[in-house]
Amino acid sequence: MTRASLPLRIAAVGGLAFLHIPLLFILLYAFTTEEKSYAFPPPGFTLKWFGVVWGRADIWAAVGLSLKVATIATVLALVLGTLAAGALARTRFFGREPISLLFVLPIALPGIVTGIALRQAFGLMEIPFSFWTIVLGHATFCIVVVYNNAVARLRRLSPSLIEASMDLGADAFQTFRLIVLPNIGTALLAGGMLAFALSFDEVIVTTFTAGQQSTLPIWMLSELIRPRQRPVTNVVAVLIIIVTFLPILAAYYLTREGEAVAGSGK
Amino acid sequence: MHVHTLSAATPAVRFAGVTRHFGAVRAVDGVDLAIAPGEFFAMLGPSGSGKTTCLRLIAGFEQPDAGHIEIFGEAVEGLPPYRRPVNTVFQDYALFPHLSVGDNVAYGLKVRGIGRAERDRLAREALALVKLSGMEARRPAQLSGGQRQRVALARALVVRPKVLLLDEPLGALDLKLREEMQSELKSLQRALGLSFVFVTHDQSEALSMADRVAVFNEGRIVQVGPPEDVYERPATRFVAGFVGSANVLGAAQAAALGGEEVPSSLRPEKIILLGHGLAEPAEAARLEARVVEVSYQGAVRRVALLTPAGLSLTALVPASAPGAMVGGTVQLAIPRGALQPMEGER
Amino acid sequence: MSLATFDLPAPRDGALRRLSDRLVRRARLLTLVLLVPPLLWLGLIYLGSLFVFLGQSIFSIDEFSGTIVREPTITTLLELFRPANYDIVLRTVGISAVVTVLCVVIAFPVAYYAARYAGPRAKAAFYLAVMMPLWSSYLVKVYGWKLLLAKEGAIGWFAGRLGLGGALEAWLALPVVGGPSLSVSYTGMVLVFTYLWLPFMILPVQAALERVPKSLIEAAGDLGASPATLFRTVILPLAMPGVVAGAIFTFSLTLGDYIVPQIIGTSALVLGQAVYMQQGTAGNIPLAAAFSLVPILVMALFLTLAKRTGAFDAL
Description:
The complex is a heterotrimer.
Chain A: H1 6-29, H2 48-54, H3 57-88, H4 96-108, H5 111-124, H6 131-156, H7 159-167, H8 172-201, H9 204-209, H10 216-225, H11 230-264
Helix pairs in contact in A: 1-11, 2-11, 3-6, 3-8, 3-10, 4-6, 6-8, 7-8, 8-11
Chain B: H1 2-5, E1 13-22, E2 25-35, E3 40-44, H2 51-59, E4 66-71, E5 74-75, E6 86-89, H3 101-110, H4 116-129, H5 145-157, E7 163-167, H6 175-192, E8 195-200, H7 203-209, E9 212-217, E10 220-225, H8 227-232, H9 237-242, E11 247-249, H10 251-256, E12 264-266, E13 272-273, E14 284-296, E15 300-306, E16 312-318, E17 329-335, E18 339-341
Parallel strand pairs in B: 3-8, 3-9, 6-7, 7-8
Antiparallel strand pairs in B: 1-2, 1-4, 4-5, 9-10, 11-12, 12-18, 13-17, 14-15, 14-17, 15-16
Helix pairs in contact in B: 3-4, 3-5, 4-5
Chain C: H1 15-25, H2 27-55, E1 60-61, E2 68-69, H3 75-79, H4 83-116, H5 120-135, H6 138-149, H7 154-161, H8 165-173, H9 186-210, H10 214-222, H11 227-256, H12 259-263, H13 271-279, H14 285-309
Antiparallel strand pairs in C: 1-2
Helix pairs in contact in C: 1-2, 4-9, 4-11, 5-9, 7-8, 9-11, 10-11, 11-14, 13-14
């Protein structure tokens, strides 16, 4: 293998650096003593703002709401996404393509269109905006993440495993529980983690489907538009990075390991 | 011949006019067949001939579009695989990758609600039967191809099927292992007294293992019978060509060589090259031919011949016999009875 | 060599097992049963509400009472072509195009390096290094740029230290791309969009490049092609499906976004903001729906063209 030329290496490393430098700055600003502006370099460093955030009930309430919404939306997405994947992974029928397109639609369309459409639908059905309208909005676009992961794994699952299970006396439900579920488990877990991260971070659809509730991204957005508590926002930003970082890293290793296991049978 | 002494009245598997299409393709086209209890039955044919679909129809993975299927006298149309007293050894073995070898074998017992201790005991017994004792804790991925095959066999046998279905079970094994498994499968089948239905595209495998062979072509059974019958008396040109190799003669050519005036087959090893001290059989047609080509194949030599009448023949002669010279002329003897009229071509 | 012969107990024959009989016998029924719950939500509620919302683009608004007149008309759709509104459409499509081009330029070397030169370990590290920012919080990433782009922020400070302060001033003094500071200029907005969607370009381009056989590149080299010719005639055409696939993301995501322009950008509106304003403060749902149709139609056109290049295989 030849080595890459110097300009190519610089461009590649530069591209990756571009992706990571803003995140490093967020980390840096969480410790700044500056309160009124985004002055660089920070005049001094302090841990004080972590303590302040720790004591802020409104932030904890937003975190709690976001976690609750993400958990329930993920569970809903897991059920609906797995069902959809089971129906479409290995079948061919008229109308299959439009249906699989439909599952992708909520992330393919601009979030604002999905948000307004759902807002109007809730209005028409006279459903008051609440915790549950946020959850339904999030589940709508989380389904596709679970669906994609589950479909990919189901397609790698040899169909003769399911036949073998039924051949040995297991009915459809036993086969699902004892054979299919254990084999797609890590893919579902990975899909669920990504769905969780997606929901935890979502702001656009939430803007339209939330009533008076404030999820963490909604709180963050209001701070972005009208900065009032810069140091607190700096710390919250770091916390959000950490909370989304962990499930994504876990999802990555889960799908990688799954591939290794599935591949070793060949 | 225990096959005939067992109650021939109720076959282990019976097909009557069974048809299965996939779209416009008739994968199985009006198949009738009866497999006796305790019989080792081979379904032989090229890929796409319908043999695997027939096996899947017995297992219940496919349902017939027309016709009737019985297993030990009971109609099974519409019954799902898990309600049929048959089990399958899959071509790719289909071992459950997330379960240990022991749990793979015990799977059929577990779904029947048999307790842990009892099913472990039965699984150990089944693994001992296929000479894999002590492998219970391994994962399928840690086994060799031959071992996986044995696990698949134990997993199917442990639930006491009335008929065992084997889908090209030896296809993925190397030659030496395949020969070993052939004799082992055969003795296992004798010991258990089960019906084995065995799908293969390898004619030598079918001939060496089966009590009876059904030859499939284009969704139909073209001939069924004991291996000797199928080999010695192929019913059609297809069988003559697919099961071993054969010289196929037209009606007039057969008559000219002393046979019936019916398209006939002539196995290459039946042709005798005279001279060199070989005894000429008492009743035989004699003719002269030119040697076109000779190829050495280890135990035998394959000799391509052309008669003055323009008939091309292939003969197999012992390699130890003095070789015919390419371009030379030889005298042939074709014993009476070597020419087999093909019943399906009458 | 034998197995004890005995009859195994028959499995319990409950209601579930009988239900399973029906589902196994009729595979179509199973597919249908599985599809019903997701389709009830996505097909009925979601798709239904989309149609209801977008369908209102054929209604109009009564200018005096501010209520929706439920009579089919094309006046609302024609309003999109009024100069002020048409500008919004053109501006947004223009920004999306610039962002897409920038993404291609920055993504290509990263993807090319990862596809052709990185070993398995480096490849995994590259993948993670692209995935992590992709999945990081959108708002936090925007916030990070707000820190960087602020007048008193890091970019200004570094520019000053490197003696480029004058250059930055000059750039900001330019028409169109300039502004009072980076955080209220098109330059800043495009930079943030490029940053946000870059991973969506790197991944498909890399996937497309991975499929270019090494032998093909070597063969072209053996035939005496210079690196530039090689790139233009072999690599770029083969990478094109990946570029188009990435462009689907970068283009559509920019087209529909209204948060970035609200936080970092000029006072001139983009499509997303127009939709937001029309449904919110202006209360003109028909016009909001008409504006919403624009990104959908543009993307439909884009996808139709993209399908011809085989971009969907690179997704």
